[in-house]
């Protein structure tokens, strides 16, 4: 097997982190098609996105402690197998209710990827190098949302919406084979009591009582919620209201994602010199500027492609600076329960994003305001979480 810090393993970990975004972004161009195919409404179709986040959030609480108890490798093998089976069901389903249910189980499998990958990075690289490694992984992982909608748009136009889930099934087969043949165990501190309910409750309370950890969690959760607001609402705004084709939508989505790739690239280059706290300050400020600008334009009734793409590009650029550093600083201090900390971080990230996604779906009024307004509000929330929780905790020495 390759060394845990080798390039092939980093590529595999990046692919595992990409499970979530690829599972949502690939089929985004087909969402308006699903409304017509299943004879339903926008809010119901958007449930296929929100229910994915619910499943993703709930299983986060299991996979982290599970990987602390049984090891990273067996946990990944279980999760990827569940994902493969659920993806195949998504490709074959004939009703919107069955698709929603299958998406829930797809999420139960998919979330093992980022949870265990973050823990593996912590195992192998330690706290000091983890932020840099996660930043470069995030930059490479951003290829999934950059390429996913473009590829999904082409697949939907040429072969129909089912082709997206066929591709995800094939992808899962490849990942399962790679984990089985390439990834060795990296958890040298297995915790025999990690899954004991009383121990879980005590450890979760320990984490949540730390103001710095809670602040980092909220920064990550609000930042990701802005991304998900764009994910859940953009296809209806750009395709239904601006009359872009699925392929054109994919290209526009890819252009926005370039902002995230640029942000994570800069995070990887600048974090060793400037430090994580400064990068988070810069990122949250930039995200708030883009988010509030987009919200104001939408409130003024400006419906133009540039009025969507440019503010979201700036928001996502700032998010690219913020997420790797906030994630690394949240998990970094907890060597003996890195999986648990990663789980709680991921749970909050996905749960808050799911709630906001459902709200955006039900507030759909034929304008860009629900989507852009949500991005503006969560960008402000991320900035306030950093200012009111993270900075005071660091000053008092309660969080690194």
UniProtKB/TrEMBL annotation:
Q: Name one GO cellular component term.
A: plasma membrane
Q: Which SUPFAM superfamilies match?
A: MFS general substrate transporter
What topology in the membrane does the UniProt record assign? Multi-pass membrane protein
Q: Which residues cross the membrane?
A: 7-23, 43-63, 75-94, 100-121, 133-155, 161-183, 213-239, 251-271, 292-317, 337-360, 372-394
Q: Does the entry feature the keyword Electron transport, yes or no?
A: no
Task: Provide the GO biological process annotations.
Answer: xenobiotic detoxification by transmembrane export across the plasma membrane
Report the domain of life of the source organism: Bacteria
Q: Which family does it belong to?
A: Belongs to the major facilitator superfamily. Bcr/CmlA family.
Protein known as: Bcr/CflA family efflux transporter
Q: What organism, scientifically named, is this protein from? A: Azospirillum palustre
